[in-house]
Structures are given as structure tokens and as C-alpha cells.
Amino acid sequence: MVSFTPKTSVPFFAEIEMERFTGLDYYRVDELYTDEERLVRNTVRDFVDAEVLPIIEAHHRQGTFPLALIPRLGELGVLGANLQGYGCPGITEVAYGLIMQELERGDSGLRSFASVQGALVMFPIRAFGTEAQKIGWLPRLARGEKVGCFGLTEPDYGSDPGGMVTKAVRRGDHYILNGSKLWITNGTISDVAVVWARTDEGIRGFLVEKGMPGFTAREIEGKFSLRASVTSELIFQDCRIPRENLLPGTAQGLKAAFACLNQARYGIAWGAVGAAMTCYDVALKYAKTRVQFGRPIAGFQLVQQKLVYMLTEITKAQLLCLRLGQLKQAEHVHHTQVSLAKMNNVDKAREIARLAREILGAAGIVDEYPVIRHMLNLETLYTYEGTHDIHTLVLGQDITDLSAFA
Ligand code: TGC
Ligand code: FAD
């Protein structure tokens, strides 16, 4: 790794982090969680502090995902944790959200791994799969013995997945799949891909397994965001898929795919808060110790304004997440409510990361501090799982009854 000599007298992140992260809870939201939810949160928080933070900057620099953490995530029971049965613990939606928050306090790539595995692979198998598919995949995915990915986006169809050209044609007891999927998290490290394709019966979901003839994956290089995450292209050339690998419950076409997106967007809304909490925490500590013009920069009104804005938006986002979690737990959540939380929390976290970067001055552009990493990662959150603009239009349609898409 490249060595770097700091030019500032302020303690670097490793030193600042000597103090255990105790959390940012201005409105005592902690009191609104159950004991079990707090226990889950604290367990994952300790895991992130002990096993993620010490290694994540190196992975970010090298552009690698920390594969060794996958079995640990399985041991901790965080993969598909809000699902019931088949080796999944069925914890509350709020506890699940807190897991996402803590993982993303470490890195968005780690939360993305868990989101894709749980919300975009295990969820569709649980919701739309056959009994054999559930028994065959879910316990192994939950333990982290197997890895999955989700292929919806195509080179020419991102925000508009309904236009997809990937096609599966029935041939006796097989389907023949042709096409490609782009920007697929976990693609090259996956044992199974949930792939959405056009068929004679509309858009359906398939389980495409590693090694199936005609299926290849390649890693996308050159990312400046989500570097500690695997992002891939999936290519299908006359790929033969046994009929039993069709997810039968996906007869609702894109609505089934959208149901998966809601699960992942829910996790992202919580995760973004974790990234913002780290940025605020580092910026506050830095501002209290960095001295300019003879006093800590935290004493300047303009710096205080930034810190107060960060605190206010994090507090609002925490409350939004909690209420969304309660609605989801009661099965009373509408997908537009998930859109609002994803849109708002990511937008605010992105702004908070930029403000934290500003407060750190030049030190904000080096990875001795986690701020620049989170700032860059949040560009991906702003785009994937529905861009900020798309969620704005989803909400616009909901309140006006007028679609901006049609
Ligand atoms: P549209 O005509 O608007 O809707 C068709 C039907 O579906 C319903 N619907 C939903 N239902 C449940 N949940 C949702 N989120 C839903 N969104 C729409 C809708 O009510 C309608 O129902 P009905 O009964 O009237 O027929 O469909 P459209 O094709 O025009 O799509 C509109 C749009 C733009 C909202 C949709 O295509 C969209 O969400 N685009 C964004 C694409 C996206 O989010 N891709 C994500 C790819 S996966 C990913 O990024 C993983 S990142 C890794 C990680 O998570 O960490
Ligand atoms: P486009 O749809 O081409 O949009 C480009 C711009 O146009 C955006 O600013 C958008 O907001 C704007 N725009 C588009 N339509 C409209 C409109 N109607 N009105 C106003 N503005 C509009 N996908 C998967 O399927 N699985 C994954 O695991 C996955 N992981 C990802 C990981 C990473 C790191 C990234 C970056 C992406 C990932 N994606 C994944 C893809 C992601 O979901 C898409 O990038 C996203 O849906 C946007 O599509 P696009 O990039 O093609 O942008």
C-alpha cells in the first residue's frame, strides 16, 4: 500500500476511532427500539468496529471486496435476517434496518453485499420460489456458503427495466436465455443469479446457476465509487436453463421484480443513515481538535451551521426509518413510502458526506479518514435501486395521479 505522511496536527482516524462508536442519538430514538433490536444493532456495531473498519480502507484502495467477511456475515445471521424459515431468523424489520445501518457505517459495499444477498436473492426465492428452490438455496445463502446476485438492469435499460431485451425462449423442459445484464453487484462471485427476462408469458425471473452452459460474467473495472464491492456484467449466449429454475411466482412480471426492489430500497434508506453517522462523527471530532486562527474550527459559526445541519438531517432520517420499519412490520407500507425514504435519506447522506469533507479541509480528500470513501460510495446509492430523479417522479405520480413516464 502507498504510504502517506499526514500534514495536519489533528489525530488521524485510527486514533480518533480508539473511542468506541457509541452512536448518534439526539432524539433518544434508542428508547423506541426493543431490547432485541438494540442487541442486534450492538452486535453488528461491534463486528463492524472490530472486523470491518481495520481492513476496509485497504480493500477500497485495492478495489476488492473483503470475501473473508462473507462467512462471518452468515455466522452473525444477518443475511436475509428479516425472512422467516429455511435457516432465516425472522427478526423485526427495524432490527433488520439497524443491521443495514451498521454495515453501511462500515462501508456501502458491505451493506450492498448483504442487501443483494438478502433482499434481491433470498427474498425472491422465499416469495416466488418452489419448495425445492427454497430448501436448496435459502439455508446456504443465509449461512454465507453460497452467494447470489440480481440481474435486472441492462446496458440500454436502467431506469426503464420494462424495455429489457434479454429473452428466454421455452424449448421442451429448458429455456434458452440470450442477452446481458450490466452493473450487477456480486456478479462474478455468485453461485446463483436471479435473472429477469422477457418470455412469451411476460417478464419472468430465473435462477441461473454458475457453470450453466452459455453463462459468463466479467468484472467492471475503473470504478471510483463502491470500490469495495464486486460489480459485473452477466452475459447469456444460448444459456440452457432447466424449467425447474423458473421462479413460478414471478408470473406478475415486473411487479414481482419491483417487490424485490422495495426490500432493497428499504435497506438502503437505513444504510444511508449509517454512512451519514460516520461522516458526522468524524467531522465533529475533527472540528473540535483542528485549530485555526487560534481556536478549534468547531467554534466558528459557519462550521457549527454545517454540523447542526448534519445532526438535524440524521435525526430526521432516523425517525423516518423507524416509522417506515413499523409500517413494513405491520405490512402497511406502500412502495411510494419506501421511495420517499430511499430518496430523502440518500440525498441527505450525500450532502452530509460532502459537508464533512469540507470541514476536514485537505485532510478530507485522503482515505486516512473514511469521509471521502463514503462520499464517493453515496454517488452509487444516489443512482442504484432507482435514481433520485426516478423516486421523485414515482412520488410525483402518487400525489398528482399524473405519470411523468407515460
Ligand atoms: P409502472 O407502469 O409504473 O408500474 C407497473 C405496475 O407495477 C407497480 N409498481 C410497483 N409495485 C410494487 N413496488 C414498486 N416499487 C412498484 N413500482 C411500480 C405499479 O403500481 C403498476 O401496478 P398496476 O397494478 O397499476 O399494474 O411501471 P414502469 O415500467 O413504467 O416503471 C416505472 C418505474 C420507473 C417506477 C420503475 O421502472 C422503476 O422503479 N425504475 C427504476 C429501476 C430500478 O430501481 N432498478 C434497480 C435495479 S437493482 C439495483 O439497482 C440493485 S443495487 C444493489 C443494492 O441494492 O445494494
Ligand atoms: P439511466 O436510466 O440511463 O439514467 C441516466 C440519467 O437520466 C439519471 O440521472 C436518471 O435519473 C435520468 N432519467 C432517466 N429517466 C428519466 C426520466 N423519465 N425523467 C427524468 N430523468 C430521467 N442493477 C441491477 O439490476 N442489479 C444490481 O445488482 C445492480 N447493482 C449496481 C451497482 C452499482 C455500483 C451501480 C452503479 C449500479 C447498479 N445497478 C444494478 C444498476 C442501477 O440500478 C442502475 O444504474 C439504475 O437503475 C439507473 O440506470 P442507468 O445507470 O442506466 O441510468
Tally of helical segments: 11
Give the percentage of residues in beta strands: 15-25%
Mean pLDDT: 95
Number of domains: 3
State the low-pLDDT regions, or none. 1-8, 10-14
The gyration radius over C-alpha positions equals 21 Å
- Described by its quaternary structure, the protein is single chain
Q: Any idea what the CATH architecture of the largest domain is? A: Up-down Bundle
Bound small-molecule species:
3-thiaglutaryl-CoA, flavin-adenine dinucleotide
The CATH superfamily of the largest domain is identified as Butyryl-CoA Dehydrogenase, subunit A, domain 3
Question: Any overview of this molecule?
Answer:
The chain contains 11 helices and 11 strands. Helix 4 packs across helix 7, helix 7 runs antiparallel to helix 10 and helix 9 crosses helix 11. The N terminus is likely disordered. The radius of gyration is 21 Å and the shape is globular. The chain is 50% helix and 15% strand. The protein has 3 domains: 128 residues, Orthogonal Bundle (Butyryl-Coa Dehydrogenase, subunit A, domain 1), CATH 1.10.540; 98 residues, Butyryl-CoA Dehydrogenase, subunit A, domain 2; 146 residues, Butyryl-CoA Dehydrogenase, subunit A, domain 3, CATH 1.20.140. It is of the alpha+beta class. The strands form 4 sheets. The protein has a 4-stranded antiparallel beta sheet with strand order 4-5-9-8, covered by helices on one side. The site of flavin-adenine dinucleotide has 22 residues, from strand 3, strand 5, helix 10 and helix 11.
